[in-house]
Specification:
Helix content: 40-55%
Largest sheet: 3 strands, antiparallel
Number of helices: 6
Distance between the termini: 9 Å
Order of helices and strands: EEHEEHHHHEH
CATH class of the largest domain: Mainly Alpha
Shape: elongated
CATH topology of the largest domain: Butyryl-CoA Dehydrogenase, subunit A, domain 3
Length: about 210
């Protein structure tokens, strides 16, 4: 079975902003007729920018886990909690649903994003055609969950509001939240910087 023709073989190019399929005019400063963005067969320096953002996000993720993320006070007992100790604190205080949300948003999702984006980058740099369809699905998954990555920060704000209902005497956000927020922003920028079209570039087709 012969391979399907590529877009560049058909003289087509897709806008990486709005997805509009345009005729490839070979003009250096060509723009998308729908959104006006510059047209590129591939995002310039996509892998370099993505690696830089991903490494920076991982660096910020370390203090996000080491530094306390919130302070809870109840009956004169004051505790500064990191992400993991905060999960335990929420569970003990009778909020297992919030504990699960914080654990998923703060531990599971960031680690999955680090792993998936690193896999996409390494496979793209190698030019392999291994599991291209599955890698495309992973990229779409990372983009989707990126919109929900700030749940942990929202939960801390929610806990502050819960004071009015008597769940805690006092809840205060601490510096760990800032580092975690930076981690989320940088991972989102990393996923946006990666050009998914690189997944379909390979050195040889042996399908």
């Amino acid at each position: 079975m012969s391979a399907l023709p590529r877009a560049h073989e058909l003289g087509l190019i897709g806008c990486h902003v709005c997805g509009q399929v345009c005729r490839d005019t070979q003009i250096e400063d060509a723009a998308c007729p729908r959104c006006g963005s510059s047209l590129h067969r591939r995002k310039p320096y996509s892998c370099v920018r993505t690696w830089a953002l991903l490494i920076a996000a991982f660096i910020f993720y370390i203090p996000a886990n080491v530094l306390p993320i919130m302070r809870t006070a109840s009956l004169g007992d004051v505790d500064d909690n990191t992400i993991l100790s905060g999960v335990i604190e929420l569970w003990v205080k009778g909020s297992p649903d919030l504990a699960v949300i914080v654990f998923t948003a703060s531990i599971v999702v960031p680690m999955m994003k680090f792993l998936v984006i690193s896999t996409l980058l390494l496979s793209a740099l190698r030019g392999t055609n291994w599991a291209r369809r599955q890698r495309s699905m992973l990229y779409r998954l990372v983009e989707f969950i990126g919109y929900w990555s700030m749940l942990d920060v929202f939960v801390v704000a929610l806990l502050t509001a819960l004071v009015q209902f008597g769940f805690f005497s006092q809840v205060e956000p601490l510096p760990g939240v800032v580092y975690f927020g930076l981690t989320v922003i940088l991972t989102m920028l990393a996923s946006q910087s990666f050009d998914p079209r690189l997944i379909w570039d390979c050195k040889e087709d042996d399908d």
